Amino acid sequence: ANHYVTGKAGTAALTITPAAGNNVTITWPAGTTLQQSSLVTGTYTNTPGNPVSPLTIPASGTKFYRWSLP
User: Fold this and answer.
1) Burial class (CB in 10 A: 0-12, 13-18, 19+), 6
2) What is the DSSP string of 1-47?
3) Could you tell me the pTM of the whole model?
4) What are the distances in angstroms from CA 6 to CA 20, 21?
5) Are 44 and 36 in contact (CB under 8 A)?
6) What CA–CA distance (Å, rounded) separates 40 from 62?
7) pLDDT tens string 12-54
8) pLDDT value at position 39?
């Protein structure tokens, strides 16, 4: 599975780290919205379920993530 970080703004970063059981954990700034896309160029949509950081998900497929201000 491939998961990519698409950027960093100031000191606020989105991180993706390996987790147990073939999972990854995504961490992003509090008060922002996690968005995802199957292409780095977008279109990005809000991640289903309005998750809060940190989020642990299966490491499957290819996804690109970013955060946005609400």
Assistant:
1) middle
2) -EEEE--EETTEE-EEEEETTTEEEEE--TTSEEEEESSTT---EEP
3) 0.81
4) 24, 25
5) yes
6) 10
7) 789 999 999 999 999 999 989 999 999 999 899 999 999 999 9
8) 95
